[in-house]
Amino acid sequence: MLAPTTPFVLKTEDNPYGAPKEYFEQLWQAWSSDFPKWVEDNKLPFFTPETSPQMMDWLANMLLEVPLPVAIATNRAAISTDLRPVLAKIDRPVLILHGDKDQSAPLEITGRRTAAGIKGAVLKVYPGGPHGLFVTHMREVNADLLAFIKA
User: Fold this and answer.
1) Contact in structure between 114 and 6 (CB atoms under 8 Å)
2) How far is CA 143 from the centre of its chain?
3) What CATH fold (topology level) applies to the domain 21-150?
4) Taking the CB of residue 143, how many other CB atoms lie within 10 A of it?
C-alpha cells in the first residue's frame, strides 16, 4: 500500500481520528466552484521541493482530466467507507510505504492505523515524504517493493 487513505478518514462518534464531514463538503464545494484553481493551490504539498515543475504540472493535468462528478463521487466513496473491520481479515503479507510529511493522508491517521490493523503488516516511513511518493521517492519505492516481493 502506497500512502493509503485507509482505514477510515471520516470523523464519526467512534472515529475521532477523521476529519468532520463539513470539511469534505467544503472540499467538494471548492472543487465544484473551480477545480483547476483548487488543484493548482494544493499541488505543492503533494511533492518535494526537488520535484520538477514539469512533473508537478504533468500530474496536475492528469487529475484535471478526471470528470468532476467522478472525482467527487470517488472521494465521497473513499471517505465514507469504513475499512477498519476489514483490515483484520487480511491474511497476506502487506507492505505499507508512507511519508511523514503526507498532508493528503497524514501518517498518524492513515498509515500507522492501517498498519496496526493488519496482522504482520510492515510499515516503512519515508522521512520528508509527501503523498506523491511514487514520483518523489521513485527509486526508494521501487527498491522497497522489489525487496518485499523477493522476501
Assistant:
1) yes
2) 20
3) Rossmann fold (3.40.50)
4) 11
> Can you tell me the distance from the alpha carbon of 18 to that of 126, in angstroms, rounded to the nearest whole number?
22
* Helix (H), strand (E), coil (C) string for 33-46: HHHHHHHHHHCHHH
Q: How far apart, in Å, are the Cα atoms of 31 and each of 38, 49, 95, 100, 112? A: 6, 25, 32, 26, 29
What's phi and psi for 98, nearest 5 deg? -150, 140
46-63: per-residue pLDDT in tens?
999 999 999 999 999 999
The whole-model pTM stands at 0.92
Q: Which sequence spans correspond to the domains of the chain?
A: 21-150
Q: What is the pLDDT of residues 67-87, one digit of tens each?
A: 999 999 999 999 999 999 999
